[in-house]
Predict the structure.
Amino acid sequence: MIKDMEKKATRLSWVLNAPRQQQRIALLIPQYNEASNCNLERRLQYFANVAEQYKDKLDVVIIDDGSTDNSLVKMIRFINEHNPAFYLATVKPNANKVGALYLALKHIEHEFVILSDFDTDIDDPGKVEGLVQAMQADPSLMGCYFRMLPYEGSGSVFDFQRLEYSLLRSLYRFHEKDQTVMVMPGAGCCFKRDVLLSIYEEHSGFRSGEDREATQIGHRLGFKAIYADHILTLTRPPLSLRALIKQRVRWNLGYIETFVKEKSFYADQIMKGTRIGFRSLVDLFVLLFILGMPLMIAYFAVMNVTQLMWFFGGLYVFCLAWCLNLLLIAPGETTELKGRRLSLILAYPVMKLTVDYFGWMGAIIKSLKKK
């Protein structure tokens, strides 16, 4: 990644002033071509409010990652009109998010950095200050990740993601003992700045799975992470099935890219029988099952329709049992679903198989084209 940035002569500059380095924590927000977003000014006002409210605890830095529309012009206009408390940096040319964050880290001196997205809210980021002492005391910790919650939406696709996020958060408990995780969400996590710099120096710069790759590089370097479930990250998920599958194609492509790049690390984890290794084997089995499902359906349909019904019935019951097991592991992760847990779980297997099948098929096709 660093060599690519040097070839493109990527540079970072500050609009007006740079952070005065008085705070220990910086909140970094990369953005790219948000001018078409009708909520651009509302989002800028949100970050201005955050910067003002937490000015004694952290610095808010928005990073324009080589936008090709007029979003930078709009942001500069906002600064001139409102004089917000946040800082604005520009990166040219586009550095694919990871490169922009890397340059920003090189230009600040804060001890800790919170990563988030332009369309994401963090409920009380000042709570990170309470974790600073614990992260400092343990040199093996690279940081912490927050509780991700789908926010501002309705409909079956939104409800599916609310349950899915709850189940995925329940898996955090599986990794709690050895303080690992498969992905520290880039929309809501906090890193030690020096550790994140060392991670990005080994990062491929690929955009699809930058969070997953950064997390696994951190684990490979010997670092761990803790779950800060009291800090909420309110993310705005896709609200249509088409948009959701498009998102999952990108996520799964990132998984493939990370697995190929870090294959030696994954193989070592599998051989050692670690939780990351076990999760990797399960993911591989699920992937093979999903991709082979059409062939199994065709086989049973030709050989015996009754067996096909039993196949789907057994698959449905297995998915329900898996969901209920996760709810028992971490019942607190589904509190926001309130009384709708049962109805959502009953509909979950069908939606999950549909999204995963098309998401993985699309990712594999894209990865083959990219070689």
Notes: Residues 122-192+205-371 form one domain.
